[in-house]
Design goal:
alpha/beta, 10 helices, globular, 15% strand, eight-stranded parallel beta sheet, 8 strands
């Protein structure tokens, strides 16, 4: 099956980079590749109005309620989001989001008409103990329903400048695909995220089970992000 590559720009807790809304912006739609930006909640509406494909960095599963500071999946959809990250390692770490809670997010996102990107991956300690395959299996098995996009992001590689070898990424992506139900194996896109840069992106993208990239720091530099996007073609 031909899976359209997806390059996601996770701007995290940063303002949109300079030139993000220009006509030549690398964050705009391009042929042969899906591009999605994940701004802060404050910038979602502005990005939507500039005709970017927009996702939220997180969302609360409950539709309404006494959850100060949170925004529901339903509200995100109403304000123009089409994607949402679920279970990003920084949310799991800083906000103690459990596998069970992430599963609720994924289901709520799909119910709201959003496309969730389920983030999974192991910590440095878990990899040191050679538990990485057990970790991603546990995280996948916690889902009551699986989304059609999964992002493998080894926690120890995020923002550190260190990343696994291309062969290790392919091994993990193939392992993740093997854990999926038969009817989802071929159609599910599996992204890689973790210290993605222009000088290593091509190596990841050439692997058969890598269907795109979740880009953090490099997505804040339009020049670097453009270089990464061009590697898809």
């Amino acid at each position: 099956m031909n899976r359209t590559p997806l390059i996601a720009a996770n701007w995290k807790m940063n303002a949109p980079p300079q030139g993000w809304d220009s006509d030549e912006s690398p964050y705009r739609k391009q042929d042969g590749v899906e591009i999605v930006v994940f701004p802060t909640f404050l910038d979602i509406r502005t990005c939507v109005e500039k005709f970017l494909v927009v996702g939220a960095q997180c969302g609360r599963p409950e539709p309404t309620g006494t959850y100060t500071g949170d925004i529901s999946m339903e509200l995100l959809a109403q304000h123009g989001c089409t994607y949402v990250l679920c279970g990003h390692s920084e949310r799991r770490s800083h906000h103690q989001e459990s596998d069970a809670f992430v599963a609720l997010q994924v289901k709520a996102a799909m119910d709201a008409g959003l496309q969730p990107i389920l983030c999974i991956g192991e910590s440095a300690d878990e990899r040191e103990l050679k538990q990485q395959f057990d970790v991603v299996k546990r995280q996948l098995e916690a889902m009551s329903i699986l989304p059609s996009i999964i992002a493998y992001e080894p926690v120890w590689a995020i923002g550190t400048g260190s990343c696994p070898a291309e062969s290790d990424v392919q091994e993990m992506h193939a392992n993740i695909r093997s854990l999926l139900p038969e009817d989802k194996k071929e159609g599910t896109r599996i992204l890689y995220g973790g210290s993605v840069k222009p000088d290593n992106a091509a190596g990841f993208l050439k692997e058969p089970d890598v269907d795109g990239l979740l880009v953090g720091g490099a997505s804040l530099d339009p020049k670097e992000f453009r270089q990464i996007v061009h590697l898809v073609h």
